[in-house]
Fold this sequence. Notes:
Elements: H1 8-41, H2 105-167, E1 171-177, E2 184-191, E3 197-209, E4 233-235, E5 240-247, H3 249-255, H4 258-265, E6 270-281, E7 291-301, E8 306-310
Antiparallel strand pairs: 1-2, 2-5, 3-4, 3-6, 6-7, 7-8
Amino acid sequence: MPPRSPGTPRMCYIDAMIVKGLAIFAMLVTMTPVLLGAQANSPAAPPAAHPATQPKSTLPQHPATVPRSALPAPARPDLNGAPSEDQQPHVIVTLPAPAPTVWPVHDRILWGAYLVLAILGYVGIMLAVSTLKKIERHTSAAEAAATAATNTAQAALLHAQTIVNAERPWVLITAEPTRGVESSFDITATNRGRSPATITSAVDKVIFAADEARLSGLPQLKPAESGARFVPVILLPGESATLKTFSREDVKGICETDERFANVESWKEKLFLCGKVAYQDLIAPADKQAHETNWCCWYIHGKQRSALVPAGPAEYNAHT
């Protein structure tokens, strides 16, 4: 899943605030003329005049609203050119002029207050949007600084781990001929590191196989059943200690039968001697996991002399 940008939710929120502020401002601007028009179109009640001061209307009433008994009787024309009976009197009705529209002071103040509120609301929204943008920039800068600090801390940790690995002890196992004894070999542990090491355990096992490729899986290595307790050995940088001695005379006791011994002599069956050494760093904390070194050698039985050489797959010669 691609990483999502941390500023996307904040930008959506800022856009929503801008749209909301513009909508409120547009609504206020749209409703203001409607309210003002409603106030202006509402007819103002004329002031009540005193009955004594009200002028008497001299306009004649409309014939439809004046009772017939109040109408003047039609004049009867005479024979000398006076109005005839078919002629009707002409009535002229004059309507009063509409009262001028007056915008009260209260409505003016209310309109001004609405306008000021709309402007203040718009300015407040713009200030809020600007503040949110500044907060977003500061947050992005803080996130970048935190990421840089994390990367720096990881680099420092890797550097410290490299220094620790360079200064830690490294115990290696070698098979060396025993001085003064022919066809005898010493399994020696040597500290090749830069700090002291304590060997806490050392176990080994003999394996018979037709070929080196037949060695499958690291065998279960257990201490000898003799019950002898292993004595820890402290190795300073460059020091060595002999863990086991293996000679030609030990082969017959390991083979147990003459047939297997004959197979070892004719190389039909190979004898492998493998083991494991566990050790700790003296300058490391006590609860730190111990290091291990696996080793494996092939015993070559000759007619006159023998040899013990390193052999085995990678897991048989691993280091931790």
